[in-house]
Amino acid sequence: MRVRVLGVDPGLTRCGVGVVEGVAGRPLTMLGVGVVRTPVDADLSHRLLAVEQGIEQWLDEHRPDCVAVERVFSQHNVRTVMGTAQASAVAMLCAARRGIPVALHTPSEVKAAVTGSGSAGKAQVGAMVTRLLRLGAPPKPADAADALALAICHIWRAPAQNRLQQAVALHAATAPTTTKGRTS
């Protein structure tokens, strides 16, 4: 089943967005890529509003089945990680408001899915995104390429994750229950 995914590489100054459509194991199609930018000197609340408005426009235009957001991880610069977390929360809120499922992927998961190495550099990710989507050049800036990589990662990983979740649910539903040390 073809799926359309909006990838979001959260950031307060540059929030990468990219839409990819396809099926795991088949050629994928890029439907759009860009960056939602906010002015560094603007008030935080206005910057978050600008990110929200930008993501809403992408959701309106592309109508994704799912939104894949980079999972925020601890960085040395607390200010940077706070802005990233805030932009991430805005993206998740926009999707939830519309009833669109959200998937979180770590940077190493995305890199491993796209390049085969969880420690790949930005240039490697950009090169593989270009190759996988049959683009003429790597998307610029790197935030845009990272957003496409998130969407690709989700398309490739979601079927396996869904099967795993179904197996866990089936096991839980069929496992004997225990009451006071006895199985029923």
TrEMBL record:
Q: Where in the cell is it found?
A: Cytoplasm
* Cofactor(s) recorded in Swiss-Prot or TrEMBL: Mg(2+)
Q: Where is the active site?
A: D9, E70, D143
Keyword Magnesium tagged: yes
Q: Where does Mg(2+) 1 bind?
A: D9, D143
Q: How is the cofactor bound?
A: Binds 2 Mg(2+) ion per subunit.
Which top EC class is named for this enzyme in its record?
Answer: hydrolase
The record lists the catalysed reaction(s) as: Endonucleolytic cleavage at a junction such as a reciprocal single-stranded crossover between two homologous DNA duplexes (Holliday junction)
Record-annotated residues binding Mg(2+) 2? E70
Entry EC no(s): 3.1.21.10
Task: Write down the InterPro entries for this protein, in alphabetical order.
Answer: RNaseH-like_sf, RNaseH_sf, X-over_junc_endoDNase_Mg_BS, X-over_junc_endoDNase_RuvC
Alphabetized, the UniProt keywords read: Cytoplasm, DNA damage, DNA recombination, DNA repair, DNA-binding, Endonuclease, Hydrolase, Magnesium, Metal-binding, Nuclease
Where the protein is mainly located, per its record?
Answer: cytoplasm
Q: How does it assemble?
A: Homodimer which binds Holliday junction (HJ) DNA. The HJ becomes 2-fold symmetrical on binding to RuvC with unstacked arms; it has a different conformation from HJ DNA in complex with RuvA. In the full resolvosome a probable DNA-RuvA(4)-RuvB(12)-RuvC(2) complex forms which resolves the HJ.
PANTHER family on file: CROSSOVER JUNCTION ENDODEOXYRIBONUCLEASE RUVC
Q: What does this protein do?
A: The RuvA-RuvB-RuvC complex processes Holliday junction (HJ) DNA during genetic recombination and DNA repair. Endonuclease that resolves HJ intermediates. Cleaves cruciform DNA by making single-stranded nicks across the HJ at symmetrical positions within the homologous arms, yielding a 5'-phosphate and a 3'-hydroxyl group; requires a central core of homology in the junction. The consensus cleavage sequence is 5'-(A/T)TT(C/G)-3'. Cleavage occurs on the 3'-side of the TT dinucleotide at the point of strand exchange.
NCBIfam families for this protein: ruvC
Which family does the record assign? Belongs to the RuvC family.
- Its protein name is Crossover junction endodeoxyribonuclease RuvC
Which gene name belongs to this protein? ruvC
